Amino acid sequence: MKTIAFIDAGQFRPAIVNQRLHMPQGQRFDWSLFRNFMRQAAGDEVFDTHYFDCVSDAPSAGREAFHQFLRNTLSFQLHFSELKDKRRTCGLCKGTYIEHEQKGVDVGIAVHMLKLAYSNSYEQALLCSGDGDFAPLVTYLRDSLGKRVIAVGWQNGVAPALRDASYKVVHLEDYQQAIIGTTPEMPCFGATDRPAQPACNHQPATGPTTPTATAVGTPVAAGNPLR
Predict the structure, then answer these.
(1) Range of 167's domain?
(2) pTM: predicted TM-score of the whole model, two decimal places
């Protein structure tokens, strides 16, 4: 069954990966292994992989190197949206600061999934996201175009509506031994891509913060990884 993968970079931010996976010292999320894992999740070869992310006007050298690694080494097709500045207020000192927010990734994924479905470029899609906003799209692909969609996400991170619309759901935590490794890769983007929240009297400065993650769906109860 011809399969194409669509990856929402938001759910693979370092803050999320480090929280979800129990990685011994010296191990890391390995994108090369993840590419192999996608074949396992699909039950077949993955014909193509589309990776959707946001970039700032001046991305760090580490992030650019990471994207080059995905493009040149893993042969991912990369699609970028802009990062938007959003003013936030500290819950402690009430001071304001600017934070980058991901915009346009969901629309990009939806457009490409529909476009490739209409051209009959795939029979099955791996949707690496837990966002419930994709549920109507997945339902349409299933009922009107005869496409099978497998949702790949974190436990308690796949929205109920997306879970119900998908052919099955694969939880990444259940396969962590297949996606973590020790092989060094090109450096991934890090804290320099997002400004740190300024310190206040209640919260001492501890240096740059790890990039926070965008929401990946309404929490649901953990269940069988294969629905």
Answers:
(1) 3-193
(2) 0.75
